[in-house]
UniProtKB/TrEMBL annotation, chains A, B:
Keyword entries, A-Z: Lyase
UniProt family annotation: Belongs to the DapA family.
Coiled coil residues, start to end: none
Annotated organism of origin: Paenibacillus helianthi
Entry's transmembrane regions: none
Signal peptide residues on this chain, from the entry's feature table: none
Designated name of the protein: Dihydrodipicolinate synthase family protein
Highest taxon in the source lineage: Bacteria
Length: 299, 299
């Protein structure tokens, strides 16, 4: 399940709770598009803002509405104690895999991060994907540490940050590959650089936009992994105005605003203090959507 | 209460819960030393790793054992919803003030951070101290934003990061002072630079070491604020080996390890994945403590 397009949907919510109806609609779109896997409660799913009960509910809904598509559940938390509880909840609910980032407040040491993964993997029997995202966790993995963690029994994939250009991405993938077992896949994130990552040797795209527009993201993934990089690049270039908005405002605020504008979810949809775009930025995004005319099939 | 030495004690804990007996001993030391205020559930109090019930319990114990010394409670959380609950808990329990940092996972905008402070201050009637600590929150305040927030009714102080040298600290304090109301105090953190901050115009020292060794930290604060900067510098220089350990391993790990070595708290005392120092680093710290011969009066 750690190859192809892994789509990360939003968890629509307001200050009173999760909008379960809207979440189910987003999940149905992904099931209907037949993405390769669904990653709920990733950064795009605002996992870190939800409590244990809410995270369990999202997990249950994802499994219920996935129509057999493999489900990966984000189990990250600041404290190991909480990660272990979330891991147990995900496994009991029937998740196919879990995603774990070394979320930090106090800066973590390599030894502390390794112990976290060692402890959590010992408690699990389903596969784990290592979530490497320094922009949110403030933790930077060395390749040595990646190699050490990737040799733990149930580690099957590493989700790496995007690299902007092909040569750097190829070098990054080759360097990391030299440190980890052959059967551990490398998946790229950072949607604007997904095609670069896939053509440079990543086996999966852990995708934000794929959680909202699965069809075009599947098409890009198939082209890139099938050796048709020109086609993949052309499709990604078509989405360039969205990638620019991602870089300016953060991908979460942008996809939440798109989903609000398209009427897929209500406004507000993000946990305060986070807000979706308003004013000029929202207008700009509306204009981009009108230009691109991306399909929003209703489920 | 936002002047002088504000001492931030550890919250000793293990994976099963808070060590209340050990916490009470730490609180009694501070009450006995007559620090100017006590800041529980700051970064040194590991607030972010505790759940709501645990934070309420620490709050109640602090108020019970403070012997009338003003108590400030850290109410920070990633989500506004949770901050509001913690603010209510602190106020109901009888706290004298609260401390609020813009903790982030997704990078926050200035507008989001202002709205957070606006919402929380509207819900409170006790004073609030703004906690500016980019190394843990990943949020950098502009002076304009500080000024905007400092004009909210119940904001009484700003806890700023330490600045290493006197000229930069003086410039920093003067620049910030130009943006905020006269009655909002500025307090320094970053213990190694406390004397620099106090002699450069800060009215308070929000202190990590003060939570463990209140006597020498009171003495340093009195000297620095009383115009005897040579004496303050001499005392701070005496502690230089500890400041070097703070910079190398993080102040939280170092004070936790000191308290463990001195038998004030049990080992482990930090929430996993965080660990106190072991091996060579612990040995080095033990040697420093033996050299310094800092008093640990038993309460």
């Amino acid at each position: 399940m750690f190859t192809g397009l892994s789509a990360f949907p939003l968890t629509p919510m307001n200050e009173t709770g999760i909008d379960e109806m809207a979440l189910v609609q987003l999940l149905k779109r992904l099931a209907s598009a037949r993405v390769d896997s669904i990653g709920v409660l990733g950064s795009t799913g605002s996992y870190v803002y939800l409590n244990r009960e809410e995270r369990l509910r999202v997990t249950q809904l994802a499994i219920e509405y996935a129509e057999g598509i493999p489900i990966m559940i984000g189990i990250s938390a600041l404290r190991t104690r909480d990660v272990l509880q979330l891991a147990e909840d995900a496994q009991k609910a029937g998740a196919n895999a879990v995603l774990l980032a070394p979320v930090s407040y106090q800066q973590l040491t390599d030894d502390e991060v390794f112990s976290l993964y060692e402890t959590v993997t010992k408690s699990l029997s389903i596969p784990l994907c290592v979530y490497d995202n320094p922009s949110t966790t403030q933790f930077r993995f060395s390749d040595h540490l990646h190699g050490h963690i990737a040799r733990l029994p149930i580690v099957h994939s590493i989700k790496i940050p995007g690299v902007p250009d092909f040569d750097s991405a190829k070098q990054r993938v080759e360097q990391l590959r030299a440190h980890i077992p052959k059967d551990v896949s490398i998946g790229t994130s950072g949607d604007p650089y997904a095609v670069v990552g896939l053509t440079a040797g990543c086996e999966a795209w852990y995708s934000v936009l794929g959680g909202l527009y699965p069809d075009i993201c599947i098409s890009i993934t198939r082209a890139a992994l099938g050796g048709n990089s020109v086609n993949a690049e052309r499709q990604s270039a078509f989405l360039a105005p969205l990638w620019q908005m991602f870089q300016k405002y953060g991908s979460l605020r942008v996809v939440a605003t798109i989903a609000e504008i398209q009427g897929l979810i209500n406004n507000p949809s993000l946990p305060l203090p986070l807000k979706s775009l308003d004013g000029v930025a929202r207008q700009e995004l509306g204009n981009i959507l009108a230009d691109l005319q991306l399909e929003i099939p209703l489920c």
